[in-house]
Amino acid sequence: MKSRRTEPGRRDRLIDITIDLIAEIGVAGLSHRKIAARADVPLGTLTYHFGGMDGLLYEAFTRFANSIADTFTARLGAAADAEQAQAAVLDLIHSESGRQSNRDLVIVFELYTLAARDPKFRRITSTWMRRSREDLERHFSPRAARQLDALIEGAAIHRALDPEPADRELMRDAVAKIVARG
Q: Start and end of every HTH tetR-type domain (predicted)?
């Protein structure tokens, strides 16, 4: 093991490694030892920086959720009108960079599992959902924004798990109907 007493960015690197390990082995398979080994740091480093596994998981999932929300903000923020915003919603449903990679979906499911049981992690998902709705409300009514947010989340699950997920045309129709009813 290398000595890295003054390694700049160590805390951030540990968070990134934790996110990668969550994607690979899940929260249940995670341990301080596995993270420390992957990071090539002494075991006590994790306790020093995060106080324990809960603190590290909270930081990792917060970073992950913020990165996804930032992508969402960028996509919808680039839309100049409602038509472009609808196209952005479709891109978020169907594109790899929107959130459709298997890696990201695994991490999302891991977060949802923790959030279902622990209010601390539920705050992460609540903040994420609020940000998504605010971005959508820049282009759509609050009612439509909620419906579109639910469609995006549900479609992501179906695209990950359904052997025959809905195609882009079906989702375009769903988005148009939601927006029309506003």
A: 8-68
pLDDT tens-digit map of 8-17: 899 999 999 9
Q: Residue 36: which CATH number? A: 1.10.357.10
Give the Cα separation of 35 and 14 in Å (integer): 7
> Is this structure's pTM higher than 0.85?
yes
Within a domain: residue 2?
no
Q: Encoding tokens for residue 143?
A: 């009612």
Q: Give residue-wise pLDDT tens across range 110-119.
A: 999 999 999 9
Residue pair 100/156 in contact (Cβ under 8 Å)? The answer is yes
Structural contact between residues 61 and 126, judged by C-beta atoms closer than 8 angstroms: no
The count of structural domains within the chain is 1
Classify residue 182 by its DSSP letter.
-
How many residues can be counted in the chain? 182
- Residue 5: inside a domain: no
Q: Quickly state the pLDDT bin for 100 (edges 50, 70, 90).
A: very low
